[in-house]
Amino acid sequence: MNEIEKYRNVPLKRVRELVIEQLKFGYAHDHLEEEEFESRLERVHVARTKDALISIVSDLPEIKESDQLKTQNAGVSFRLNRGHVKEKGVIFAVMGGAERGGAWKPPRHLTVAAIMGGVDLNFSKAELAPGTTEILIFCMMGGVDIIVPPGLNVDIVGFPIMGGFEDRSSGSVDPNAPVLKIRGFALMGGVSVKEPKKKIF
To answer: In terms of domains, do 45 and 84 share one?
Structure first.
């Protein structure tokens, strides 16, 4: 099958993410020098077609499923959703609370609003979409607490006014680890990211 045929029905944004993942994999496994990696990464960001994106990694080894699971086999506890991934989701908490936990399947783009209330998001047993999962947060006189499993990359940027954004996650050095991208605004409220407490026997 022609390479582009694999991605014929995949959104351009997702193809871009997959190409970036393959570049990171190639760099981590010494298929690319640092200068070449950065050069190709710049080409990815300016490419406007799927063909242009695929051509950037056409000479690199394809990431196999066994490679994608390598982080899990190394003892990292995040889970990947290998089935259907919902594109969008919304969680509201107005003068009350809302929570998600257990073996849930987060959408690729999640909007969260906490207004004089609280939202608890526990990703410890969640089945995350491969690549990037994005959370957009609006918090006013409330709070959003996010628990992430060890080995999950967290990219958090927030604009607080009389509030704060806190990230206590350890992250991962594995280029294949999923990314939780958090963007938000907090007015007299806060957003915190942390890992589950370790059990002490």
So the answer is: no
